Amino acid sequence: MEKKYNFEDEWKARKVFEIFHQKQNSTFAFKNNSNYSKFLRASRNKTNNEVVIKITSSSKNFNLLKSHINYISRQGNIELVDSDYNLYSNKDEIKDACKNFNSVYKIPTQNEIINFRQKEKRETYNIVFSMKEHSLAPVNKIRIAAINTIKKKYPDNYFVIAMHNDTDNPHCHLCLKSVNKNGKRVNIKKADLNELRKNFAIELRKLNIEATATIRKNKY
Asked: Which Gene3D superfamilies does the UniProt record give (predicted)?
């Protein structure tokens, strides 16, 4: 029996861009008339090339992981690439991608957590990569830059990534396993997210995409 798309994840992904645009256009950033004038001058001559990275959700058991993988792959209709550059392009192969998340460290199922009275933990980080002005960067280059960014920061953590170019804001979904191949669990904090944004912009510039990463104080 096929599972339906995870509309909650889809809503969260779209909400990332809505909130980002709202913050960019809100008046609180222009309290100072001098700063506002500088912004106007800069905006006339410069396209907004800010990168966007957002942790949209997480999976706390294997059932939720499979649901998220099915969503970002559109039930096998969108190709996945993993951290070892393996490709998964149909329903059967998507099942293999899910199984690969259980190598070294097994992610418990919902029943196992209940039956063995285990404490729920964040088993994956579900991350969206994009740009504010998405027309500046083809989604395939966003995928390349996202892969290089994550492999640089978390070289021992398994992940899969999918491109979504069928929306108003083309973007990539990356699902990162929290426990690496050495059994160490990563904990992504605000400073780590800022580093990811900075490196994502660097990787895009290597692909001849003009990109910037402004460090902000807001939480992810």
From this structure: 3.30.930.30
Confidence class for position 134, pLDDT limits 50, 70, 90: confident
All domains in the chain, ordered by first residue: 7-24+47-206 (3.30.930)
Q: How many angstroms separate the Cα of 123 from the Cα of each of 53, 58, 59, 81, 107?
A: 19, 7, 6, 19, 7
Tell me the residue type at 193.
L
Residue 185 in tokens: 């669990």
Tokens encoding 143: 């995928």
Tokens 């039956």 belong to 115
The set of residues, in sequence order, having a beta carbon less than 8 Å from that of 174 and lying 6+ positions away, is: 126, 127, 128, 129, 146, 147, 150, 159, 160, 161
Distance CA 28, CA 139 (A): 32
Question: What is the model's pLDDT at position 112?
Answer: 98
